[in-house]
Task: structure prediction
Amino acid sequence: MADLSPWVELGTVAAGAGGIGYAKARAPRAYWSLVGLPVTWGRFTWTYSSTMEVCGLTVQPSRFRAFVARNIARSEVRPVAPKVRRVSPTPTGLRVTLRLPAGLEPADIAASCERLRHAWGVRSVTVVETKPGFVELRMTGYDVLNRVRLPRRARPHDLVVPVALREDGSVFERDYRAVPMALTLGANQSGKSMYQRNLIKGLAQLPVGLIGIDCKRGVEQSRYAPRLSALVTTPEDAARLIDALVVEMEERFDLLALHGVSDLWELPEHLRPVPLVVLIDEIAELFMVISKKDEPARDRTVMQLVRLGQMARAIGIYLEVCGQRFGSDLGKGATALRAQLTGRVVHRVNDKASAEMGLGDISPEAVLAATSIAANRPGTAVAGDTSGGWSRIRTPEISPADAAAVCREFAHLTPDLPFLAPFRPVSQIVVPPMPAVPPRVKPRPVTE
Ligand SMILES: Nc1ncnc2c1ncn2[C@@H]1O[C@H](COP(=O)(O)OP(=O)(O)OP(=O)(O)O)[C@@H](O)[C@H]1O
Ligand SMILES: [Mg+2]
Result:
């Protein structure tokens, strides 16, 4: 009988190669851990010095060092690359901490990211300054934004909600105490509501009151009703709700004044009012007026919103605003309100002007990055903050049913706030059972 072992071996090798190819495409995380990480780590270790040298990321050695090399070690005097202090693998890539030699700054390394990425065959390299003199190179081994999954340890806590993944593999969190007010912009179908859905899913698990303003007749937010303390779906109701919030803000300030503190978090826990997050889906609806006679009412609502934006942080009311555009063309007060919204997340936009409305005050590169988001990647956005930093992020895809289920599960956390009673979502209003009415006609058996 013919010897079959070469064929068996060949088959095994082919199956192995096919399995690796399949894992690379379908399970990139597993592929990275098993194959990509050891290969990249090895390549990085063997080629580090030469790569830094050809990328121009070295400095001349000090005179003492050159003297030692020439006269004592009797070796060639070589330029000095940043010292590698730590290499740590992550489920999505590799992180390397470098100590910068005198003469190099983080911007020098950041300018060569593209070259380093190609040299080490990784998907992306970003540079973060961790402390003076130290930078971290964050490499990702594969396109982490292709199918987004947040790590299991990313859980909402202390008014911090993990909401998306950055392209360097780290988690993008919405921290309400650090950035109390935020604006999310994007064209139709760019993923704004998905961003809010992720936020609501996280916020629902925290001890906060959630207030929904969804002037698209509540199509998006009415699903979250079990966890909402208030929901309004028309601009008129929104105006009344915003007035009620301003009155609440004034009362909370009185409380702070009474206890001689300037911030809600300085109050003792038993006196502290519950923090409130106001989620506005499509801000433009609050600015629109059909006739001139409605303008004073609109101006008043916008002015009240600006007041909330200016002062409500101290008393724990936070604004989370969504819209397609947010320029001065929306109407009086638009730019004043926008200036109060520090956190900025811009999804795909139709024109550069819309990206500038969100990111223009942050950085020109962030504007460019937002205009180059592909239409077939909904949920991808550029997130910035006023410190000048920005990053590409993408939300995980969750279904409305998932978010609604979380809202139902945590419905018991919905605070009971009497001032919001008129705005309680319809599904929460308990209809008293009809009193039993005695039948007027005495029933007779049909057989008679
Ligand atoms: N992160 C994501 N991953 C995959 N698909 C997404 C993601 N985000 C959004 N989508 C999909 O893109 C589509 C539009 O999303 P979404 O409704 O959030 O957009 P939008 O900006 O709110 O649109 P509109 O302006 O019409 O309200 C939906 O079908 C949604 O499933
Ligand atoms: Mg939407």
About this structure: Residues 192-193, 220 surround magnesium ion (ligand 2) (CB under 6 Å).
